[in-house]
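[INFO] parsing input record for Anaerobic ribonucleoside-triphosphate reductase activating protein
[DEBUG] input buffer:
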Amino acid sequence: MHLPHSVGLQKTTLIDYPGKVASVLFFPGCNMRCSYCHNPDLVLGRTEGLINRDEVIQFLNNRAPLLGGVVLSGGEPLLYRDLKYFISEIRENGDFSIKLDTNGLRFDSLKELLESKNPPDFIAMDIKSALSSYDRFFIDQNEIKNIQKSIDLILDSKIPSQFRTTVHPDFIDVSMIDEIAHMIRGCTSYVLNGFRPGNCLEPSFNSHQETSSQFLKDLQKGMLDQDIPCTININ
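[DEBUG] output buffer:
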């Protein structure tokens, strides 16, 4: 895919780009199927209710004096091969910092973007679980190796970054801490987000309990014990 004709738009956010007032652009389509995902329409590539890309650029142009950043999220933005040109177009219309949200599966696309003239200014990568459990997210086994490669690439790039995990007890537990800590060793920020039911990709997950604050704290302690700088986000 080159670029989507339309994207989702959250006009203003104070929490999705650390330290900046930003807009979030949501790209349709994803190469993962996380049962607890809260963006099922985007994951499945539905475009109803999305906004024409040219209109989004015009909106950003008009809001440029008020915004510090633009977040490219999804779905998975790296499914689109021409993302670097879209970043260039955004920057032409304002002095924006660009944050990329990615799941890390498209290592080649990430590498190409970071080596281009228009790399992002900040990268947030989702760590779904320990690598040994990634097959539970319906990923081709041959792609799982790209997760560690993408992590290493991000860390080596020296671009400000953050790794994060949505914590659902079916997919992550305290026994995985050592493996996950090894995966992201050297990172400067790791965030644990609690799962909350509602609008999940797998409807049965809407009846699941939200992640307890104690479970998040137990995971956090394990990460801190492994010298991983870790914070928790309890919605």
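[INFO] Helices lie at 40-43, 53-63, 83-92, 107-114, 145-157, 177-183, 213-225.
[INFO] shutting down worker
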